Each structure stands twice: as structure tokens, then as C-alpha cells.
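The instructor's notes for this session suggest beginning with a concrete chain rather than abstract definitions. Hand out the sequence below and ask the class to guess, before any prediction is shown, which regions might be ordered.
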Amino acid sequence: MRDDPRPAPRRPASDDRPAGRLRAAWSSPLTTYYLLVGTTGLLLLLGLVMVLSSSSINSLVHGHSPYSVFFDQTKYALLGLPVMLVATRLTGRWQRRLAWPALGGALVFQLMVFVPGLGCGAGGNQNWVCLPGFSAQPSETIKLGLALWLGVVLARKAPLLWQVRHVVVPGLLGAGAAIGVVLAGKDLGTTLVLLLLLGGAMFVAGVPGWMFGVAGSAGALGVVALVIDSPSRVLRVANWLKAECTDIYGSCLQSTHGTWALGSGGLLGVGLGQSSEKWSYLPAAQNDFIFAIIGEELGLVGTLLVLALFALLAVAMLRLIVGHPDPVARISTAAIFAWVIGQALINIAVVIELAPVIGVPLPLVSAGGSALIMTMAALGVVISYARSEPETAAALAARTGVLRRSIAVLGRARGRA
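After discussion, reveal the predicted structure:
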């Protein structure tokens, strides 16, 4: 009997090509999970390196160790890691239990900034709790508490959100309370981020577009009123609107030196640690304007790397928003997406002068303990959602099973030896 002359079936040629393998990897159920973990880790490491580089000279000028700000930031990162790991195990049931206490606790914490002897601030803002050896920014906890709370409340109200009263109660009332206590401390930057967070959650929850139009108009009028109420904000906006600001030693100092830092970096930068602007020329070099130092020391390549990492983080969260079966996970992820990615865009827009100077840090990169820990916790929550997707959970369980069996086989082999 002759052998079958027909050739054996083989996989399509495209599967063997890099493009085919890339498509297969992109469609893997683990892709979202690995994107979230990888981009978060890389941004955190980049932030630690740049905080060390941008803060060392200023620390020496003030009589401290050149590593003092870096050690503080590393301490906050180490404190944030267990918080983030716990958050990655946060199930939907626990989120539903913690949502109300989380927002309530954050509101009480924020109100502490108005207690004499506890609250402190700078530049006219009252947004910190300060004790000997300890300081924290409660508004950062409000971001996370509000994101969790909106996910639970709006998911439960989803079939009724076409009615105004079900959008207002309790969604807008709770969010209004959170935004109101932050506004009472005159922190406009955090208020803008909270408005973005609220908008992201409401959009994914299914609030009708006409309500967004009304709320957006009211919010814009409110922001204009807040700007007019503050002479310093009016001056910043006026300088931003000018074709060229000439007060480079006064009101335009920060934006001008930030632009100079970016311009002097060129394609590849002047080299890590070689910035000139960090020699006390650029205010808040390790905080709000750290992106300018990245541009100066690492050049256009460094800034594009940062943008690419945030873009990948955004894509990972968008995949969750589109594909996760749990509405609570979709809405809370949308809120955290609007918070983290929106804040990053605001920060970068300020540095490249597409927006007036607003005091918001670059998430995971800028120096600051409260912001870093809460951002890590929020991304831990998003990672927990990625882990809970049915296909991802099955893939992770299979890999864990293979690893355990491999370890068991190795253990038996050593025992026989």
C-alpha cells in the first residue's frame, strides 16, 4: 500500500513570522496583565532614577545628603509595594464592602487639613496634614476612594442612569462632596484630576451625553470662577496666553526654565546626571517639572519612552474597560484610567507649555510619597481586575500548576540522587 503523497498539513506561514507571533501575543489573555505589571514597574524604576538625578544638587544646597530625597522616595516605593500587592488580590466582593468606608475615611482624612495644628500648605493651598516626622496629602486618598466608590454605586444604578435623579443620587452627591472638600483647600490641580476621574467613570457607566454637556459647561464655569478668584492663577493663565513671556525671573521662571531644559536635551540628552537646570534654576525639578529634567538628560528619546510607557498603560486599561465582564471593574478602571493618564497628560502639557502651570505630579515618576503610594494602590486594583478576567485567571492558574509540578519533579529527582 502506497504512502499518501499529499503533504502533511502545516501551520499558516504567517504564524511563523514575527508579525504573526506578535498578533498571537497581543491576543493572549495574559497580555493585559503583563502590560499593567510591566509598565507600572518600568515607570516606577525610571521615577526613582530621575528623582535621584534631579534632587541631589538641591538637597546639597539645603545642607542635606544628596540622596535624601531619593531615599525618601525609595522608602515610599517600598511602603507602596505591599499596598499594591494586597490591592492585586482585591476581589469584587471586597471592593463592594470597602467602597463606602474607603470614600468616607478619605473624606474625614481630607477634613483634617482644616484642623488647627494639623493642616498645613503652601502657595495659598491648604492640602496637607503635617505632624512631627510625618506629612501626607489626603486628597490622594480621595482619588482612590472615589474611584472604588463610583464603580460600586454606578454599576448598581446602571439601568437607571438615563434618569437625572439616579445620576445625582448618590453618584454626583458623593463625588461633589469629595471635590468640595478638596476645593475648600484651594487645590485646583487635584480638583481637575477628580473631575476627569468622575467623567471617566460616568462615561463608561452609560450616563447620557446631554448630561455630560450640562455638567461640562457647569464645570468649565466653575474652573473659570476659581481662576478669577486667585490673583496668582490669573497671572499664570495670562502669562500662558502671551505670545512670549518676558518676566523670566518672576512669574515665568518655572515655565521658561522647563522649556530651556527640554530644548537643551536634543535627541539623546546631555547625559544622566548632567542637567544644568537642576542646579536650583528650575523650581520643583524633582516634582511637577521632572519631565523637563528627563528631556534635558535623556533627550527626545527619553521623553518618547515616558510617553510610550503611559500609552501602553492606557492601552492595557482600555482593554480591561472594553472586555471585562464585571461592570464594577469596568467603571472603576475607567475612573483610574482618567485619573492616572489624565494627570500625566496635564503634567506633560504644563511642561511643554500647552497648558498654564498647574501643580500636579507625573504619576509614578515625580517625587512625593502620598501620590506614589496611592497611585501604586490604584494600579494594584486594576491589576486585580486583569487577574479576575475569566481567561486570564485560567491562564494564570495553568501556569501556576505547571510551575508547581515542575518544582515537585525537581524535588523528587534530587531525592533519588
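Then share the key points. The first strand starts at residue 119 and ends at 122. The chain has a mean pLDDT of 89.
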